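Let us practice reading a record.
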Amino acid sequence: MVLHYLKRFVLVLFICMFSGITWANEEAVKKAIEPHFPGAKIESLQKTPYLGLYEALVGGELFYTDEKAEYFFFGHIVDTKTRTSVTNERLQEIKAARRVPLDTLPLEFAIKVVKGNGERKLAVFTDPNCPYCKQLEKELLNITNVTIYTLLYPVLRGSVELSTSIWCAQDQIKAWDDFMLRGIAPKASDCETPIPTLLKSGQENRVTGTPTLIFADGSIVGGMIPAPAIEEKLNSANEAGKKK
């Protein structure tokens, strides 16, 4: 019996020592990486089960490095048994897990529309010259009981001027709907706009394309999706919010 407990004690001690060494190694690797990315946050760092490499995620970019961070490896690691990209699988996991809380967005600078009871929430980074954004607006016509925050994100050529005219219109909602749904261009006008703030927010949240939808639970969907998929996401995000 004494021998049995002694073996268990040694095993636990070994596990604790190994965990401590792993943690210490990860901290050392993190400190070695940091000078190469001044001002950037190392979002995650973990040791991989292959080649003694560490997986690092910095600024949304995934790469690999050795334990001294002397070399950085960008590209895909492929499992030759399954013929699948381990890197791609991790990127999909990271993408699915990423969240952008709605209250961190500059919603005070959104074109806000409340439909029905407005209980469900949706923010959309959108560009008026983006054809997929126009398709999304048609899908949103079929959605009710939602508050939609339209965040002007003019990244295409000529979109800053167009977004400015929409923002400066006497009736922003009508100007937006007229252009996106009916192809009626807004009257050219100029005023102070929050466009620089909106562009900065999109860049900080790694919005790389339009439309980008952000739901109440912080989940992100890039690209145009049909009304049934929007409904499903709105409902699941709303339920998640109620459970908190």
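A brief commentary: The CA atoms of residues 32 and 69 lie 6 Å apart.
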